[in-house]
Amino acid sequence: MDIRVGHGYDLHRLVSQTDGGRTMILGGVAIDCSVGPIAHSDGDAVTHAVADAILSAANQPDLGSIFPDTHPENNNRDSKEFLIEAMDRINSGGWAIGNIDITVLCDEPKINPYREQICDSLRSLVGAPVNIKGKTHEGTHRGGAIEVHVVAILQRGVSA
Ligand code: MG
Q1: Rounded to the nearest whole angstrom, what is the distance from the C-alpha of residue 159 to the centroid of ligand 1?
Q2: Can you give the pLDDT at residue 155?
Q3: Which of 1, 39, 60, 64 has its CA 20 to 30 Å from the CA of residue 17?
Q4: How far is CA 41 from its chain centroid?
Q5: How far is the CA of 82 from the centre of ligand 1 (A)?
Q6: CA dist 41 to 51, 67, 73, 77, 108, Å?
Q7: How remote is the C-alpha of 83 from its chain's centroid?
Q8: Span 127-156, pLDDT tens digits
């Protein structure tokens, strides 16, 4: 059995919706929040980092190369479509996901109340166990942003 690990990272600046922040969507789940990401796509930083982790593990180009943020068709695009494309690419290489572990850093929103919903949403797209945990920026200068770190395990050649 082959096993690969991939790391994904994403960061978006957060501003109020009146200042151009999009609706907060994390892992495909809409979240009630007074701030939202500045983004070309829908700004779902969790889904972006998950897609980058699995693409990276399979030696695929990164998300920004596949879906450039200069492309009009990616404007406000549902990021679940990015993850579906990433899954198609790794599946055609014979890879399946072992598990995905996500850490989100942001002062707002709190992740815990949405934990199950986000995990369910992502699990339905990747067909493997997903875990997510939230941390704050602890009063540092990065408070105006959301950061996401993801580790993904890919495996192939697993006997049924
Ligand atoms: Mg992003």
Answers
A1: 35
A2: 97
A3: 64
A4: 12
A5: 11
A6: 14, 9, 9, 5, 20
A7: 8
A8: 999 999 999 998 888 889 999 999 999 999
Q: What is the pTM of this model?
A: 0.95
Distance 108 CA to ligand 1 centre (A): 17
Pairing type for strands 2-16 and 35-37 reads: antiparallel
Distance 10 CA to ligand 1 centre (A): 5
Please report which confidence band the pLDDT of residue 160 belongs to, taking 50, 70 and 90 as the band edges: low
Nearest of 111, 51, 115, 121 to residue 79 by alpha carbon: 51
Residue-wise pLDDT for 73-123, tens only, equals 888 889 999 999 999 999 999 999 999 999 999 999 999 999 999 999 999
How many whole angstroms from 98 Cα to the centroid of ligand 1? 23
Structure tokens of 145? 């942003």
Residue with tokens 């190369």: 65
Residue with tokens 């875990």: 131
Smallest CA-to-CA distance from 108 within 10, 19, 26 is with: 26
- Ligand 1 geometric centre to CA of 49 (Å): 7
d(CA 1, ligand 1 centre) in Å: 32
